[in-house]
Amino acid sequence: MDNQLDLTFGQESPDLSPDESKVYAVVRLDEEHFITRYLNISGSISGYNDVTQKVGASRLVTTSMGKPVVTSWQFGLGRVVSLSTDNGKFWSGELYSGENARLMPSIINWVVGDPQPDKGLVVYSSDMYLGSPGTITVLSDTLPGVSFNGQEVSMSRTEDRSFEDVLNPVTQGVFPLVVTGGGERIDDLLAVDYPMEYRDVGNNPEFLEAVKRNKGGVYYPEQATSILFEDIMTNSVRTTVEHVDLRWIALLVALIVFLSEVIVRRVHGIIDIKDRRKGV
What we know:
This protein is an alpha+beta fold. The protein is built from 4 helices and 14 strands. The strands form 3 sheets. It has a 5-stranded antiparallel sheet with strand order 2-1-3-4-5, covered by helices on one side.
């Protein structure tokens, strides 16, 4: 088949006056189907096409009254999904927002199925984060040769045609991945993202302002280290206020004055005594 996915749209939704519009709650009826298994669908729609599912079809999402909103069935070797409401322009805006927005991608993913071939050389890779292990899976009839960033990777058989190995990337970036096996060769790129613990940190709101203040300048590691060292030295200087007791100086002065007066009086007393003795 040349077409993997065939989309057929009906007529545009009619304009509804406020008096004619109603609200219908939507619920997840089938919790085990691929499309709705991991979706927590909630909210409401204001209109739908009144249809009845054909024999063998599965109602996945319905209104609270059981009217089909999302229905799936098999057509030969293919898959079919019917969405019995509009594209969100008039009736079903809530199905395209929040958690409900995952509904349409899930529908398309299930209809398309696995785009990878069942035979030959197939490569899967988990998300790679710096400092965290990631898995590379290769489907091959023979033991594949795998090279990641120029280094050989030892693959181990896990199933009949499945080979796996765990990578522990030590550098962030995009690296070449080369896989060979059964006369085939796949040249691909594998991205290693920032450490996983950074995912929930968020963006620094002051970063862009700092870039603007610096006029968008970029520093080499040596320059950044020098600037950081100067900043540390500047911020490491602390000014403190210490109270010093100077009352002892006043006491010392008073003691000196007192002793001086005592000495002066004593000297005058001695001189008077000598003068009296001379007069006698």
